[in-house]
Amino acid sequence: MVEWLESYGLVILFAIVAIQAAGVPGPPGKTALVTAAILAA
Known about the structure:
By secondary structure, the chain is an all-alpha fold. 78% of the residues lie in helices and 0% in strands.
């Protein structure tokens, strides 16, 4: 699972933030971005 997240994590994060920026309610773009930053540290 770690290899999968290393390979596709940024793509998934981009998709979540892009969907939220497009105005679709539901996916927490800011929360996903902050969580990814904390996990990367």
